[in-house]
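Hi everyone, sorry if this is the wrong subforum. Our group has a chain we'd like a structural model of before ordering constructs, and none of us has done structure prediction before. Sequence below.
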Amino acid sequence: MVSSVRTFVESLQKHADRWWYAPVVGLLAALDAFLVVIPTDGLLIGAVMLAPKRWVYSAVMVSLGSSLGALSLAAILEIHGMPFLLAIKPGIDQTPFFLWTNNLMDNWGGLALFLVALSPMMQHPAIALAALAGMPLLEIFGLVLLGRSIKYGLFAWIASHAPRLLNRIWGLKSELEAAPLPKVKNIST
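Answer:
Right subforum, don't worry. Here is the predicted structure as tokens:
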């Protein structure tokens, strides 16, 4: 599945300078709530590097898509519970990150969800734990939207102004390798 996603991403990136690219990446960010293999950060950065004047638009579209995906995942988990999460990501509940997130959510609640959404870390465990704990769906959506808006806004701004800084951000290098940036002749920094 990862290789087919990579092939799709590479063919999609040929259109990164089009107006419809950012909404498509937003849709992919929403789907990533269920697939966990889409390099959303890299796709956003590629789009911004090809169309730096649209960095705000790109950041908004991807933030909204990611937040709607989180909302969808949380709504499904409220109905179907942990078995659904284990069906889409077997063994996730045994990973060190899931256990760490569980402890974080126990101690910090909604603030933990916001911090995870703000970070380059996978947000699925935090969303799952928030939904399973009964956090209201609109609160989950709002916290993820706020965190992702700050994260993607910062990434998009950096990509439009100083793209070389992106390789120094923790957790982002693997995303950039998974979604190879389109070849750009001139990038204004």
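For your construct planning: The chain has ten helices and no strands. The chain has a mean pLDDT of 84.
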